Amino acid sequence: MATLPDVLPHLDAVQAALEAADLTVYIGGAPTAAGWTPPDKFAVLYPDPGMAVRASLADDRTGLDCTMQVTCVGSDVVRALWVAARVRQALAAPLVVEGRSCWRAEDLGGPPVQRDDDVTPPVYFVPVQYRICSTPA
Predict the structure, then answer these.
(1) DSSP alpha helix (H) spans, the chain
(2) Which helix (H) or strand (E) is 43 found in, with range?
(3) Rounded alpha-carbon distances, angstroms, from residue 130 to 36, 37, 58
(4) Which of 98, 124, 130, 137 could pair with 105 as two cysteines, CB 3.0-4.6 Å apart?
């Protein structure tokens, strides 16, 4: 029986690619601890669990198809867009996941930049989604 794909190594690869682009990256949300001061720009990664995809008519579910949302945050519109551009550059090359052949991340876009007034000071953010796919190497 073939090994089912795991989303966690792909999450690690996305985080590593973003950090290699000199981005501060948080998983599942920014810290909320008292006294935490957000940097003027950062990215928050929200992964989905992915889906095991059939590789053949034999029903070997060895492919992985998942979506990772990267919320690009900045203290102003320009900084949020700067983060989005760095994310796009970082994910332009195929990810490196041991034992997997990864496709280039597919940029699915996102909505316009928005202002978040629920935090002090207010920040600007734009969520951009990427489709991540891989097969066994």
Answers:
(1) 7-20, 77-90
(2) strand 41-47
(3) 28, 28, 29
(4) 130
